[in-house]
Design goal:
About 70% of the residues lie in helices and about 0% in strands. It is mostly helical. It has one domain. Helix 1 crosses helix 6 and helix 2 packs antiparallel against helix 3. The longest helix is centred in the last third of the chain and has 25 residues.
Length: about 120
């Protein structure tokens, strides 16, 4: 049986997985928040007036522990904000290039398929 899954859900799941890795890095190295602030400053100039700019400024002002927790939150706002995350551009955040991203995407697909399949059986 082939399971059809929503590609948007797969993408959101992959971004959540990346942000879980980022949160782990952030807990080990709190200076990563400053690097994200620097990356965000570049985005802010390019996207001045967009709501996500202010929202990320507020998030990046949080204490490290709270920021790490928010990065992995499943609430709608964080699902949306992960699309514009300054951590993707921050120095020191590297997911290993194309092959690693493909593996991450495949892993996210498996998670979504497993959850979708479980929901279908219920």
């Amino acid at each position: 049986m082939t399971t059809e899954v929503n590609e948007g859900v797969v993408s959101d799941t992959a971004k959540l997985m990346m942000h879980r890795l980022i949160a782990r890095m952030l807990r080990r190295d709190p200076s990563l928040a400053e690097k994200a602030r620097i990356a965000h400053a570049g985005q802010a100039g390019q996207f001045a007036g967009w709501p996500f700019v202010r929202e990320w400024e507020e998030l990046l002002a949080l204490p490290t522990r709270e920021l790490a927790s928010r990065l992995t939150s499943r609430d709608r706002d964080m699902v949306r904000l992960r699309n514009s995350s300054p951590f993707y551009l921050a120095e020191g955040v590297n997911f290993g290039g194309y092959d690693a991203r493909v593996r991450l995407r495949r892993s996210a697909r498996r998670v979504v398929e497993r959850n979708f399949g479980a929901a279908q059986r219920d």
